[in-house]
TrEMBL record:
It comes from the Bacteria. It comes from Phascolarctobacterium succinatutens CAG:287. Pfam families: Acyl_transf_1 (PF00698). This is [acyl-carrier-protein] S-malonyltransferase. The lineage of its organism: Bacteria, Bacillati, Bacillota, Negativicutes, Acidaminococcales. Its EC number is 2.3.1.39.
Amino acid sequence: MGEYSALVNTGALKFADAVRIVNKRGQFMQEAVPVGEGSMAAILGLDSDKIVEICRSVEAESGEAVQAVNFNCPGQVVIAGAVNPVNKAIEALKAAGAKRAVLLPVSAPFHSTLMQPAAARLAEVLAPIEIKDITVPVVANVTAQEVTSSEEIKKLLVKQAAMPVLWETSVRNMVAGGVDIFVEVGPGKVLTGFTKKIAKGMMALNVEDAASLEKTLAELNK
């Protein structure tokens, strides 16, 4: 959702088009996997490479999908897939040293390969939509790299539905590119917390209401 907001703000995408796309995207992702057949879990306190390795092993053994899909920050990765392999992966990850595994209250295994049918349908919706080249780059979720080309933006929006979100790498790449202030806009401050763990020493702020806007502006004006 944040990537669509960013694309609207940079002028790549019209607001009305973004609302329509996001609505269809949500519908397609829900229809790709019936409620109750998919699952997601946050894995805490285990190296991301180990999580990927174990998920691949469980997937190969079970023949059902389970993958690492959200690389949030050091020590937190979300996995997603069909219910049974997710549960098996949780057991294996705990045995490998994960401190906790928290099942998430979601209706589908978002960003996993089980969302590929949704991605295909999303491509059809996006095909006639006008997306413009932009001068202010947006960091794409699936590559953690800056993108400005309209053609590339459209391709990545399709891929995003069924591929992992590389938040940690995105933040690290932005820091490497000279970014030293991060402002999260929207309900809550989950991403602000992730960013503080990734980019220690950088300024990470959030805006979710009038009070937090005032506080953030005060910090930025110091």
